[in-house]
Design goal:
about 475 residues; Nucleotidyltransferase, domain 5; single chain; five-stranded mixed beta sheet; alpha+beta; 3 domains; Dna Ligase, domain 1
Length: about 475
């Protein structure tokens, strides 16, 4: 199988993460992972596309230079906050002499999303998760059981996740500014769960708490299916702001560093750290401030308690509080706070473990890729591989000649200049990312496996010609509209 690269961009509230994986069949190797401070993000959504693009551009260029590649497209996560969930049903008639296939399930899921009545034009569907299926004879079946059965009809019940259309449009604005294609938009609570949770945990019942910087979310799984999702606009950044304000640090950066180095929950558990005092240089004039570690812990614990009590309320509201036999899995940057897991256990009574990316890939020595902060990035990489995402990069010194890709350092060189980023996107079919403003399962994801294989066999020459025809047709339509208006 041909080797390809998958690129994911995690647009976090406090930092961006750029991840590149080399994929060869079932082998996934993370060859690049870098985090940079974020800009233009509020509560996990883009509120200033220009700031986001300006922060991402040097990071992308640095990755391209280090790996000697050109990035043409990437997968990206959708916002986790301001997402509401509804229920919807769908049914289709089948040939009773044929067995139900995965394509039938996907068609039913697409139908449930497309037929859901969105009354607000500012909203868009982020995705759908199947809850149960029924046939003419059987009820309350899960997806793995119903595939392969025979029936004259199938009905599905789905959780529909709905978000703000502007948030997805802002993603397209950023990618257009960077001249990148959008290979896929993912609802990250689901993809992150599959990167952290085991099949046994999802089957027996578990709550995944993603303690991020701007948003803390909870995804509840039972019977191997995501049953409930909720998010609140508080996270690790709220803890940092409290340290800055209550401890009079007067520097958000310094407060964040203090939290990372000395942050701990439950001051009564400090033991030998109880009487320790931090001496902090708070200015260029050699001014110092003494900060007791116990007081710092009290400030942190108060905010963490507020956040976790709100999440525990969402767990109770879901109706699955008594079915979480695997307890809680805590991930995200906030999971690194010392004693945070023990504090949640004390508040809730659930067993708590810290969620790191499961060992489903090799890392190639990339620092940070096995930490809780990388869960979102790894989840998107694994989802893109599962969806057979196209190659997101081209070699830096490659160009197109006729119907094949040739290296420019041999006798076969045709005298053409190396292709620009726009030409690379034109060749890969990703020059128009603004057309993909839909929900989690995009057109590429909906196609059956055989269709995706047929598309891959089309020559580069045919792909370029189709893209040029499409672009030319768009210009023709625009000119025609302008002429009609003048008349």
């Amino acid at each position: 199988m041909d080797e390809k690269h998958i690129v994911s961009i995690d647009l976090g509230t406090s930092r961006f993460a750029l991840t590149i994986a080399r994929v060869n069949g079932e082998d996934i190797q993370i060859i690049y992972y870098k985090e940079i401070p974020s800009s233009g993000i509020r509560y996990s959504y883009i509120f200033n596309p220009t700031q986001v693009a300006s922060a991402l551009r040097p990071a992308i260029e640095a990755a391209e230079k280090e790996l000697d590649i050109r990035i043409t497209q990437a997968v990206v996560g959708m916002p986790r906050y301001s997402v509401r969930q509804e229920t919807n049903q769908g049914s289709i008639k089948l040939n009773p002499d044929e067995c139900i296939t995965a394509d039938d399930i996907n068609y039913l899921k697409d139908m449930a999303q497309q037929e859901y009545p969105l009354e607000d034009p500012k909203e868009v569907l982020f995705g759908a998760v199947a809850q149960s299926f029924s046939t003419s004879e059987d009820f309350q079946l899960v997806e793995k059981d119903i595939i392969g059965m025979a029936s004259d009809m199938i009905e599905g019940n789905f959780k529909i996740f709905i978000g703000n259309k502007r948030y997805l449009q802002n993603i397209d604005l950023v990618f257009n500014s960077l001249k990148l294609g959008v290979a896929g938009k993912y609802f990250t609570p689901d993809t992150s769960a599959k990167a952290v949770l085991t099949a046994a945990e999802m089957e027996s019942g578990v709550a995944l708490i993603d303690f991020g910087a701007g948003v803390t979310s909870v995804s509840i799984y039972s019977g191997g299916i995501m049953r409930h999702y909720a998010a609140i606009p508080f996270g690790g950044k709220s803890v940092t702001n409290d340290i800055d304000t209550e401890c009079r640090i007067f520097s958000e950066v310094l407060a964040e560093n203090i939290k990372l180095a000395h942050g701990i929950c439950m001051p009564e558990k400090l033991q030998n750290m109880n009487e320790k005092i931090l001496r902090i240089n708070i200015g260029a004039t050699a001014q110092y401030k003494d900060l007791p570690v116990k007081y710092l812990s009290e400030v942190i614990t108060c905010r963490v308690q507020e956040i976790m009590e709100a999440i525990l309320y969402e767990i109770q509201k879901s109706g699955f509080a008594d079915r979480l036999r695997s307890g809680i899995v805590l991930t995200g940057g906030g999971a690194n706070l010392a004693n945070c897991g023990n504090f949640i256990t004390e508040l809730s009574g659930y067993s708590v473990r810290t969620g790191y990316p499961r060992p489903m890939f090799s890392s190639g020595g990339c620092i940070g890729v096995h930490e809780t902060e990388a869960v979102t990035s790894i989840g998107m990489i694994l989802a893109a591989v599962h969806d057979n995402c196209d190659d997101c990069t081209v070699p830096e010194n490659y160009s197109v000649r006729d119907s094949s890709v040739v290296l420019e350092d041999g006798t076969e060189h045709s005298g053409e200049e190396p292709e620009s980023r726009d030409e690379a996107q034109l060749r890969s079919g990703t020059l128009f990312p603004e057309e993909d403003t839909g929900h989690i399962s995009d057109a590429r994801k909906k196609e059956p496996q055989q269709k995706r294989q047929r598309v891959q066999k089309v020559s580069w020459k045919t792909k370029i010609q189709k893209a040029v025809d499409k672009f030319t047709g768009t210009l023709y339509d625009m000119n025609k509209e302008m002429n009609d208006e003048e008349i």
